[in-house]
Specification:
By secondary structure, the protein is of the alpha/beta class. The chain is built from nine helices and twelve strands. The longest helix is centred in the first third of the chain and has 17 residues.
Length: 270
């Protein structure tokens, strides 16, 4: 086997870690891959830790112990978050995004891989300290962002639907009240989709009154599980009092201005 130069090793290590965020790789894994001593790999990782930290590219974390190793923890600095949300708010502020009924068109954003990954990185940064078993969302618009967030956090994604399918098997169904429309809606989750006593992060694209978030909390209770975090892309200014507390939103939309003068007032919520 030809001797691999340090710059080659580091390139492969970066690629491996960044493609598998929050997944632990042992030093032995890289040692065997390159035919190098573990001490050499440790030196490479120390260099990467300093470089990533200096440039706010995330964290290269080492885990001690018999089952330890190294993992890449995605992180976006406060300045980068603010700049990204300012750019996103500008993109969403075009008047032609206002739909009949006072809705905001944003499908081109939440299905755009570049924006999805940026928003997911923000959620991963905010919730990386939680012990999680899964990310959960409700079909359909929240799926891309929730999936990317789950990937960054290295946990499975669970999708709640509004109807049963024959392939679901036994399911848990609950009715919940939409906080904004005051309508009774249904949430359905197959029994095999969520393990009992799970710690859950709920990710969604939009929050008005928080009825969906409250419904997810009630659904989690049916599995003896706990929603330990809630993240939404946009929350509305009205109603000011939501049905849930301790949620994190990226932006706030002033819906009254959309109704009064057909303009969009949306700002970063940091």
């Amino acid at each position: 086997m030809d001797k691999i130069q340090r710059n080659e090793r580091i390139s492969v290590i970066i690629k491996t870690l960044c493609d598998n965020p929050n997944k632990i790789f042992t030093l032995g894994y890289f040692s065997e891959m390159f035919g190098s001593a573990k001490s050499t790999i440790s030196e490479d990782l120390e260099l990467l830790q300093k470089t990533f930290s200096k440039n706010s590219m995330g964290n290269i974390c080492t885990i001690s112990g018999a089952s330890g190793g190294v993992k890449y923890v995605p992180f976006m600095g406060e300045k980068a978050i603010h700049e990204t949300l300012e750019e996103l708010a500008k993109e969403l502020s075009h008047p032609d995004r206002i739909l009949s009924g006072g809705f905001l068109y944003m499908l081109d954003i939440i299905y755009n891989p570049e924006w999805v990954n940026k928003m997911a990185m923000m959620f991963a940064t905010r919730f990386s300290g939680l012990e999680l078993d899964c990310v959960i969302t409700v079909e359909t618009k929240g799926i891309p962002i929730a999936f990317a967030t789950a990937q960054y956090l290295n946990v499975p994604l669970v999708i709640v639907r509004h109807y049963n399918e024959a392939t679901d098997g036994a399911s848990v169904n609950i009715n919940y009240a939409s906080g904004s429309a005051k309508k009774i809606q249904t949430m359905v989750l197959p029994m095999k989709s969520l393990k009992r006593n799970s710690k859950i992060l709920f990710i969604d694209d939009f929050m008005k009154a928080g009825g969906t978030s409250k419904g997810i909390i009630e659904l989690a209770n049916q599995f003896d599980s706990e929603v330990v975090g809630i993240g939404v892309v946009i929350e509305t200014s009205v109603p000011d009092k939501k049905l849930v507390e301790n949620y994190y939103s990226l932006m706030k939309l002033n819906t009254s201005k959309m109704q009064e003068n057909n303009s969009i007032d949306i700002k970063p919520n940091i």
